[in-house]
Amino acid sequence: MGAVQLEAIRGCLEGWIPAVIATASADGTPNVTYVSQMQYVDPRHVALSFQFFNKTRENILANARCAGLVIDPVSAESFRVEMLYLRTETEGALFQHMKAKLAGIASHSGMTGVFKLQGADVYRVLGVERIPGPALPRPPARVNLLHAMRSASARIAACTDLDGAVDAALEALGSDFAIDHAMLLFAEEACGRLYTVASRGYAVSGVGSEIAFGDGVIGVAAQYRTPIRINHMTMEYSYGRAALDGVSTPAWPLETQIPFPGLPEPHSQLAVPVLAHGRLLGVLCVESPHDLHFSYDDEDALVALATQLGSAIHALQQQALAESATAGQPAAVTPAPLGQPLEVRHYGANNSVFVGGDYLIKGVAGAILWCLLQTRAKTGREDFSNRELRVSPELRLPDICDNLEARLILLQRRLDERNAGIRMRKTGRGLFRLEVALPLTLIEL
């Protein structure tokens, strides 16, 4: 059969069907084994995971030439790859990406801590040859990714505020990319956690739910700042319950978990970090109940989408910061509402807020809400500005200037979802109103 370009067989390097590697010792004794990862590097190079000092490793150091057998999981075509060992990388972008992918697989399958990547063995590809045999027909492309990216870019570019950009990104994933299940999480690097601000296609929105860096494909994508793609179901997996932020109370009074909006059995997952100017802003995650749903091309397209979203978020945050500096003063005091008082409790240990006995939010967003409610109780006003929150001595929270608008979006959406008698509405540039339908009884615990 004729020569094949390495680019054409990227789908064989997914790990869904492990690659087989044949090596030979210095005296010519052959050895055949499976390899955890064969990573596409560029049109002339691949990288293999080095995890153990086994016979394969010993052979390759003595005889640099080897051969690999890879199988396309869709068409069942087989290819022989002739390779020459060049070097082992133990740091840098390639090593970190392979390490992250291995960590994502381990976390996805409940094997965290079992696998450890010692290095990325880089090989020059000398040739790729298709092995004769029947092939299965390939399904048609789901969408035209270039057109989808163009449409999504136009949606995001038209947004004038952060809230709109969040919705535009998820709408684009559904209508332009034909992806039914997606979520966007914003990062809080100071505490090593991500929190859900929007989702699409799930039974519960999960707004306000949290996940730690390093937990699952989403947490690993955040921790290593690299895309993580898994295209098969290794075992039933669900994200861990939100921690109580280090609180060791013998009897925690009430439940503080918000259900995470993931699929109960995701067979394909792709998590892409959202970055801007060297800062991690969040993670965009898509899922499917089908195996092999997301390809290398899907990954490339979503990385491009996340890059544009990150630039838009950064620009809109800077715009909001400038607007808050020039925003007018909040409006006058509004009349107090009438009716049966609504009890709101605040637990200072982790800033958890409960409304009418039901858990609402915690952390930075909880601290912001409690600050607003206390100010309203003392002054009677319901109109506030982003600027006063930024300089509030009661908050004193890290990175609040960078994350304030994101936290306000989270808080607004969580209040709307709970429909507990408290809402937030934007009233102008850098201004918003805290609408309260009933009298409030504030209890600090």
TrEMBL record:
GO terms for molecular function: adenylate cyclase activity. Keywords: Lyase. It is an enzyme of class 4 (lyase). This is Adenylate cyclase. InterPro entries: GAF, GAF-like_dom_sf, Pyridox_Oxase_N, Split_barrel_FMN-bd. Its EC number is 4.6.1.1. Gene3D superfamilies: 3.30.450.40, Electron Transport, Fmn-binding Protein, Chain A (2.30.110.10). Residues 161-323 form the GAF domain. It comes from Niveibacterium umoris. The lineage of its organism: Bacteria, Pseudomonadati, Pseudomonadota, Betaproteobacteria, Rhodocyclales.
